[in-house]
Write a structure and sequence with these properties.
single chain, mainly alpha, 6 helices, 0% strand, elongated
């Protein structure tokens, strides 16, 4: 039987997986250019080293999104059955979702998506750790 918390974790995993693919394919998005104040091509022409660093950091973030997406599918399915999986998803909330929301908000980026994923992760954790728990 698939629980509500599992469905929420799977939705979050798909979102993370898709963001990971987008960030790896297109490292500097339009909102990054807006925050930086110049286009990716202008940044690469004027500040090649800084451009390389930004692209590398966004690639790392993309791979992190991708990994959490894959990992969340498995751990999200077990969170209501297995205490270790629940604790792992709780750690993901505090080490990834909350810092990401704070960084995007402080950086002036579109913070509504990270805020929504943080809230969904919290709701899924509450459901799987209380109402649906079988451990």
């Amino acid at each position: 039987m698939i629980k509500k918390s599992t469905i929420l974790f799977w939705i979050l995993s798909v979102i993370c997986f898709l963001f990971g693919i987008v960030y790896v394919i297109k490292p500097i998005a339009s909102y990054h250019e807006k925050i930086i104040g110049m286009t990716a091509s202008a940044l690469a022409a004027n500040y090649a080293t800084l451009s390389g660093l930004i692209v590398t950091l966004v690639d790392v973030l993309g791979v992190t999104f991708f990994t959490i997406g894959i990992f969340g599918i498995y751990s999200g399915f077990l969170a209501w059955k297995n205490k270790a999986s629940w604790i792992t998803m709780f750690v993901v909330l505090f080490t990834f979702y909350l810092p990401m929301t704070y960084i995007v908000y402080c950086g002036g980026g579109p913070y509504k998506i990270p805020l929504a994923t943080t809230v969904l992760q919290s709701i899924a954790l509450i459901l799987s750790g209380t109402l649906e728990r079988e451990w």
